[in-house]
Amino acid sequence: MNQVPCPRCGHHPDKSPRRASSEDEEVTIISQETRRIDDLIHGLYEERARHLRRLNAIRSSTKSLPPEILTDIFQRVCSSDKDSGGKRPKCTFEAFTLGAVSTRWRTVAWNSPQLWNSVVLEPLNKTIADDLVPFLQLYLDNARSAPVNLRLDFCPDFR
């Protein structure tokens, strides 16, 4: 009897795991089936993410704004805390936050060098300083040829 595979996950009833003749063979069969299920789950997560990105793009109230206007808004967000009277966090990643909103915002933010021309870092120790290197590299890459204002504040106990 030839049964049709599930249209959603592709599982074919005729290909159900066979009975194992030994524990070792059973472990192998279960491991293979687990990997197959993991691959299906991964594929479903990717499909879900594609649908959510598309849904965000359709629903976005800012989708009609040209990139130049978004860039101007982003610049104001990134520079607004300069007037905060020193209450600004010591590690500034506003451009990252803006880029996390949607694919479109990320594209606009990552292609706006003026958002990446100022960064303040206050590493507490060498491990944290090492962890900040990729962030600093992204700032330098995205700033392109724009001059970068970099401020490093090391605490007195830095090791």
Structure description:
- There is one protein chain.
- The longest helix has 37 residues, at 23-59.
- Helix 5 links the parallel strand 1 and strand 2.
- Strands 1-2 form a two-stranded parallel ribbon.
- It is flat, with a radius of gyration of 25 Å.
- The protein has 159 residues and is mainly alpha-helical.
- The chain has two domains: 13-59; 67-152, no CATH class.
- It has helices at 23-59, 67-80, 94-99, 103-110, 126-143, and strands spanning 118-121, 149-152.
- Helices cover 52% and strands 5% of the residues.
- Mean pLDDT is 81; it is low at 86-91.
Helix content: 40-55%
Question: Which regions contain 5 or more consecutive residues with pLDDT less than 50?
Answer: 86-91
CA-to-CA gap between the ends?
Answer: 70 Å
Shape estimate: flat
In a nutshell, what does this entry contain?
It comes from Macrolepiota fuliginosa MF-IS2. The chain is mostly helical.
Could you list some keywords that capture this structure?
5 helices; flat; mainly alpha; about 160 residues
What order do the helices and strands come in, and which of them pair?
Layout: H1 23-59, H2 67-80, H3 94-99, H4 103-110, E1 118-121, H5 126-143, E2 149-152
Parallel strand pairs: 1-2
InterPro entries: F-box_dom (IPR001810)
Organism: Macrolepiota fuliginosa MF-IS2
Region (Disordered): 1-26
